[in-house]
């Protein structure tokens, strides 16, 4: 499915104006219409799957990005001082949440964790503002499968002296990620479970 490239009218800009309950419903529809596909796929984890969620179709969509930021921001604990995630999937998510935080009068910086250290300059693993040791950071993830991607970000942040106690995802595929986080003492929640996405996808097909 495709979305219109026409300039939306003010009434169409639901991501900026909808209440959070409506916003969640509309974001779910966007995932179903633009990101969810069925077929034969190999995931980043190496697992085979009968479905795939092409999440950047939503997280880089203008309304999708704003909706993600608005919905994830309220899930952050009150003592959150920054958000972070593993490149590339988390890049638009942490950016959206950071931007929304300014409008909520609670500015929260965003960090991006490289998969490999930068090969030039500072040779850093972590990109973004320099924050003091002990900063409390929540790791954000797009689609959680085994949980390894976000855990890599968590470990990089802890190695840098930051405090990380929670991971928040957009979609939980229910394939071990939650259990992995629990095993290492991390709290976890996701905006959507895969069963909700699949149910709504089938409703929209009717």
UniProtKB/TrEMBL annotation:
<feature type="binding site">
    <location>
        <position position="114"/>
    </location>
    <ligand>
        <name>5-phospho-alpha-D-ribose 1-diphosphate</name>
    </ligand>
</feature>
<comment type="subunit">
    <text>Homodimer.</text>
</comment>
<protein>
    <recommendedName>
        <fullName>Orotate phosphoribosyltransferase</fullName>
        <ecNumber>2.4.2.10</ecNumber>
    </recommendedName>
</protein>
<dbReference type="InterPro" id="IPR000836">
    <property type="entry name" value="PRTase_dom"/>
</dbReference>
<dbReference type="GO" id="GO:0044205">
    <property type="term" value="P:'de novo' UMP biosynthetic process"/>
</dbReference>
<feature type="binding site" description="in other chain">
    <location>
        <begin position="141"/>
        <end position="149"/>
    </location>
    <ligand>
        <name>5-phospho-alpha-D-ribose 1-diphosphate</name>
    </ligand>
</feature>
<dbReference type="GO" id="GO:0000287">
    <property type="term" value="F:magnesium ion binding"/>
</dbReference>
<feature type="binding site" description="in other chain">
    <location>
        <position position="115"/>
    </location>
    <ligand>
        <name>5-phospho-alpha-D-ribose 1-diphosphate</name>
    </ligand>
</feature>
<dbReference type="InterPro" id="IPR029057">
    <property type="entry name" value="PRTase-like"/>
</dbReference>
<feature type="binding site">
    <location>
        <position position="118"/>
    </location>
    <ligand>
        <name>5-phospho-alpha-D-ribose 1-diphosphate</name>
    </ligand>
</feature>
<keyword id="KW-0328">Glycosyltransferase</keyword>
<dbReference type="InterPro" id="IPR023031">
    <property type="entry name" value="OPRT"/>
</dbReference>
<dbReference type="GO" id="GO:0004588">
    <property type="term" value="F:orotate phosphoribosyltransferase activity"/>
</dbReference>
<feature type="binding site">
    <location>
        <position position="145"/>
    </location>
    <ligand>
        <name>orotate</name>
    </ligand>
</feature>
<keyword id="KW-0808">Transferase</keyword>
<feature type="binding site">
    <location>
        <position position="173"/>
    </location>
    <ligand>
        <name>orotate</name>
    </ligand>
</feature>
<keyword id="KW-0665">Pyrimidine biosynthesis</keyword>
<dbReference type="GO" id="GO:0019856">
    <property type="term" value="P:pyrimidine nucleobase biosynthetic process"/>
</dbReference>
<dbReference type="InterPro" id="IPR004467">
    <property type="entry name" value="Or_phspho_trans_dom"/>
</dbReference>
<comment type="pathway">
    <text>Pyrimidine metabolism; UMP biosynthesis via de novo pathway; UMP from orotate: step 1/2.</text>
</comment>
<comment type="function">
    <text>Catalyzes the transfer of a ribosyl phosphate group from 5-phosphoribose 1-diphosphate to orotate, leading to the formation of orotidine monophosphate (OMP).</text>
</comment>
<comment type="similarity">
    <text>Belongs to the purine/pyrimidine phosphoribosyltransferase family. PyrE subfamily.</text>
</comment>
<keyword id="KW-0460">Magnesium</keyword>
């Amino acid at each position: 499915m495709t979305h219109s490239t026409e300039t939306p009218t003010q009434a169409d800009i639901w991501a900026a104006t909808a209440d959070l309950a409506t916003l969640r419903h509309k974001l779910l529809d966007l995932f179903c219409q633009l990101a969810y596909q069925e077929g034969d796929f190999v995931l980043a984890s190496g697992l085979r799957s009968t479905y795939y969620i092409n999440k950047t179709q939503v997280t880089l969509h203008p309304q999708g990005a704003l909706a993600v930021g608005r919905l994830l921001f309220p899930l952050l604990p009150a003592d959150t001082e920054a958000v972070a995630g593993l490149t590339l999937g988390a890049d638009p998510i942490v950016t959206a949440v950071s931007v929304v935080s300014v409008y909520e009068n609670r500015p929260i910086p965003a960090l991006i964790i490289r998969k490999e250290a930068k090969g030039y300059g500072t040779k850093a693993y972590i990109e973004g503002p320099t924050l003091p040791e002990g900063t409390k950071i929540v790791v954000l993830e797009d689609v959680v499968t085994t949980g390894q991607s976000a855990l890599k970000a968590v470990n990089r942040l802890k190695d840098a002296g930051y405090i990380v106690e929670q991971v928040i995802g957009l979609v939980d595929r229910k394939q071990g990620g939650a259990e992995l986080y629990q095993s290492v003492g991390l709290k976890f929640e996701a905006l959507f479970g895969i069963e909700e996405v699949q149910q709504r996808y089938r409703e929209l097909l009717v």
